[in-house]
């Protein structure tokens, strides 16, 4: 009997709550069916808790996740009652930073040609992964506001790029390419304008890339990258980029594969607790209405199971999701007529 895997569930806000419930249903079904040694614990951090007692993410809880959990599964955060996203900064970004989840792994894979908004593109044409640096860049929160509310107001937001941080995400992308038999890594920056931070990206990409002579190296400025992702997505295999650009290009990538309702994501620390969340947000206008597509959340569960050492259950989930799409057992955004719960039920009945 393998050692227990401990999994923390944080439902998130808005549709995060709706879709996480379905992903957990699938997790429970698989655990039951295969007698998986999972301990699943539920936590209530999110907007509701924050509004009730001001709690965001206690330090002791971060320690507990770090020391006692294999994975955290989290629904999207964001609630109109917390307009400054104060809770999400501590919970989502806080966990990314404090658990050192430096790899944001976001696969982009078209599973049904009818879902692609581009003309004449097949499933083979849209199949790449984005590695987004997840602990630095514009996200670190360094900066400030001076003379707030006056005509002389100054706001600064520092873009932090460290040698260690840039090197480890670029190396991770090359190692992934090598392991998966991918032949090219594309790095995207804006070094023509951002002279210092992205000069570092250029130099580190060349240095680390030289250690992988068998893998082709390619570079696009991020504006050109977005254009190429639409024009010729088939050229991409592995893309590596900074935190901010990775956020933007993965929403674009999501559309290439059928929308945010299908885009999965993992925040990985290769040596510690990792965290899994879909790419999409909390879409407040759809919250609690049995409308949101739970497949991104369910595919994200698959990424977590893969990470925990159960790739066969990830494949089973992927297969069930493909079936759901092909047979239109899907929500409106994919041309189906089912609700969130019914799509969750379909996957529960079709995973093996
Ligand atoms: P969003 O991703 O929540 O929604 C944008 C649109 O995408 C929706 O209106 C909807 O049309 C579609 N969509 C997204 N997920 C869907 C799903 N599962 N099924 C069907 N349609 C779906 O982005 P937004 O409107 O910019 O942000 C809403 C809130 O979510 C904000 O507070 C934002 O900060 C937050 N957010 C959180 C995360 C996260 O926690 N991981 C990610 C992105 C945005
Ligand atoms: C994402 C989200 C987050 C990000 C927000 C909610 C802070 O958009 O996970 O893509 O920008 O990283
Ligand atoms: Mn985003």
Describe what you observe in this structure:
- It is a single chain.
- The strands form 2 sheets. Strands 2-1-3-12-11-4-5-10-8-9 form a 10-stranded mixed sheet, with helices on both faces. Strands 6-7 form a two-stranded antiparallel sheet.
- The model has no long low-confidence stretch (mean pLDDT 97).
- The chain starts with a strand and ends with a helix.
- The chain has 2 domains: 1-101 and 269-352, Isopropylmalate Dehydrogenase; 112-259, Isopropylmalate Dehydrogenase (3-Layer(aba) Sandwich), CATH 3.40.718.10.
- It has helices spanning 15-34, 47-53, 59-68, 86-98, 163-180, 197-209, 222-231, 243-256, 295-307, 311-326, 340-350, and strands spanning 5-10, 38-42, 71-74, 103-109, 127-133, 143-146, 154-157, 184-189, 216-221, 238-241, 266-268, 274-276.
- The protein is an alpha/beta fold.
- β1, α1 (15-34) and β2 (38-42) form a beta-alpha-beta unit.
